[in-house]
Every structure is written in C-alpha cells, then in structure tokens.
Amino acid sequence: MTQLLLSQLAITPQQVAQLSSQLRNRVLNFLVRWEAWQEALDALPRSQLKRLVSLQDMQARALLGLGQI
Fold it and tell me: 34 Cβ partners below 8 Å, 6+ apart?
C-alpha cells in the first residue's frame, strides 16, 4: 500500500476518533477489512477504549493482524 487509506479519505486518525460512533465504527471496520491494521489502531479513541467492548474487539483484531497477539 503506497498511500495510507486514511490519507486517501482525507482524514486523520485524530479526526476518526472524533466522529459519531456509527461513522467511526464504519471507518474502523473499513480499515480492518483492508488490513490497515496500524491505521486502525492509531484511529481508536483511547479515551473510550476501556468502556466499549466494540472498540476493544477492533483493537484485538488489529493487533492480531499485526501479529502482536
């Protein structure tokens, strides 16, 4: 992948974290589907990670994709 997916969408990881939960989850699922593991991790909203199982699942999928778990 020569260009990062988020840059192709003209959005930063910080901006993804600020999106509505529905849109944020769609972007995160898109990143994971296209195996942009690190981008998905970078876009996870850290402040909500401990209380939302859906974000924990997304984090686990990205870490698994990176071979870190």
Answer: 5
